[in-house]
Structures are given as structure tokens and as C-alpha cells.
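Researcher: Good morning. I'm working through a list of sequences from a screen, and I'd like to move beyond sequence-only analysis. For each chain I'm collecting a predicted structure so we can compare shapes side by side. This is the next one on the list. No need for commentary yet; just the structure.
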Amino acid sequence: MTHQILEEARAMQTELTEWRHTLHQIPELGLYLPQTTAFIKEKLTEMGITFQEYENSSCITATLGSGGKCFLLRSDMDALPMEEESGESFASTNGNMHSCGHDLHASVLLGAAKLLKTHEQEIKGTVKLLFQPGEETFEGAKAAIDAGILENPRVDAAFAMHVASILPNNIIIYGSYPMAAVYGFRIKLTGSGTHGSTPQLGIDPINTGVHIYLALQELIAREMNPSEEATLTIGRFHAGSVSNVIPERAVLEGTLRTFKPELREKMIGRIRETITSIASAYRTNVEIEVLSDVPPVVCDDTLNIEMVEAIQELDDTLGIYPKYHVMGSEDFAFIAEKVPSSYFCFGAGLLDRTKWLGQHNPKVRFIDEALPLGAAVYAKTALDWLNNHA
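Model: Good morning. C-alpha cells for this chain:
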């Protein structure tokens, strides 16, 4: 049996697809998304929905209903700085790419806005929609909170979702700890440059960086309990510009991801000790810069159950499983620290599973047919939670 809201969302398939394709072709980075926000504002205006733009954080909030409790629906809308190689007819060409699916996120929240506008007389309270930039840089949620998006009206509970390119459509997953904490760091090494033929006259920061890289991997291999959950990745190692010069400087950047606060603190301490000790041994000056420090996404179990019950009523053929627990990170964690929150994931994998690729891949693709379900889930959960807590 299919719920009315899902039927209405499926009738919007063409419109949702057009929105998604438009957003996919204008990917923008960080907190400042002028083309993206202009598109969102245009569509909200067409729907007759009141909205507010926060210039300092580039967030847009919109409200439907009035009074009572307030339920927040959040979608991020920023992209990644990578060339697209998906082969889609609507692929971006500006050097950025929606390879994490945030174009789908923004589209389904717009879809939910239209559905909720149709059912506004049924809203027993207030629904606040948050279109958030800066998730990929972990800046957006904190900027939004600082701008006051959880106030006026004060948010009582929040719900967000992420799309998955390696889950089939009509599959939804959730969990108590769906996303890990992330500690991002930059290691800046300064040696002494010299000609490649006379290494004894310099101090090689590349050599130091290689030893740091290997030692950091050994922290996981030899100091972590195998039953614990942690991953340490160095994703950037940059040094030099020519082959016959030992450079003055080298830079490494990485992330530590964990779930337990005590494990996180222990590992951060060991990372710093390892880096400084090796740099000292190889006579290299070192600076450690913190790039990000985001807690894990911790969901409210009672709210999770309410969200599952609301979603199940949309279509009794949906697969809804308590399986969401990954090492990825999300700045929705900052919102979840402030108000009871749930964070779910819905599938948008291609019908041909042999073509599935993970997110942040330049060739990743998503299925447009996932959009109506995402929009319906947002609308239904908001309506039901406000009805239950009126």
C-alpha cells in the first residue's frame, strides 16, 4: 500500500529531476553558493513559501505552518573541487562536481517544501527547512547555528538524510551512531633546501614526511585494539616542484575518524607525539594545524523509532534497516548536539549494480528515481512528528 504523500511525490518525478539536473550543473564550494542559493530562492518564491537568507553563512531557511513545536528538516547543497567524469548528459563543466549527492539532497528538500505547502493546513506546528552550505568543509552547520537557525522559532527536533550511491532505491538505513567524529590536521615541515646532488648540505622534509606517514599508519596497526573503530588517512602529501632539488618545505594533510571520545583524545595525543618526535629526529621544524574537529553524529533513539514508523507508512515494500554506521563524517553532528536528531540514509544506486561507485569518485552516478521517496520521507516525518507532539 502506498501513502498519498508518496504518490504525490512520484507525480513530481519530472520536476524533481529537472531541479536536480540544474543544480548538478552549477556545483559550488564552501559557504558561498550564489547560483545554488539563487535557484533555491527562485523555487521557494514560486511555491509561495516564506524564506530567510543568512548572508554570513549563506544558509536559507523556510518555514511552513505556525506556532506549536518546530521540526527542522536539513539538506546540504555544496559540492567538491573535482572534475566530473560521470558521462552524464547534465554533467558539470566548471571544475567542481556534486560527487557526494548534495544536488539530490537540495532537490528532495525542495520537493518536501512543495508537498508540505500542499498540506500546510495539516501541519500542527512549524516545519523549518534548512538549506545548508559548507558541509564538505565542516563549516556550514556551525555557521548556521551561530547565525541563529535553531531559534525564532526554536527548533525542538531535527531530521536529515544522506543519499547513497551504493544502496538500491527503496532502501533506507539508520542507526544510533551513523557517522564518525573527524579530526582533520595539516603537518607543515620545514627543512633546508639544497641541490639533489648534495643532500648532506640540506635537511630533507620529504624524508621526514615519509617517516611520519609510515609511523602514523603503525599507530592504527600496533596501538589500536583491533576491536575498536578508528581510521587514520593521509590524503595529501605535497613537496617540491622539480626532480633535482631537495625542497625547503613539505605538507601532509590527514584525518582521524573515531566514535569514542576517549579513543579520539588518545589517538590525537599519539599523532602529535609521533609527528614531533620524528621531526626532531630528522632535524626538521614542524607545525601542526587543526583543519577540522567534528563530533560523531549521535541520534536520539526514540526519535529514530518515530521516523521509522512514519516512513514505513509511505510504502510497505520499503526496506528500512538499522545498519547505518560508517566512518564518514557529517557536520550535522553540531545540530544533533543541540537538539534531539535523527540522521538516515536513502539509496540512489543505479539499476545496474556493476556500475556502482562510491561517493567522491569523479565517475559516480545516482538514479533520479530516488528523488520522490526522499521528498516524501522528509514531508511525512515532519507532519507525523508534529502531529504526535502537538
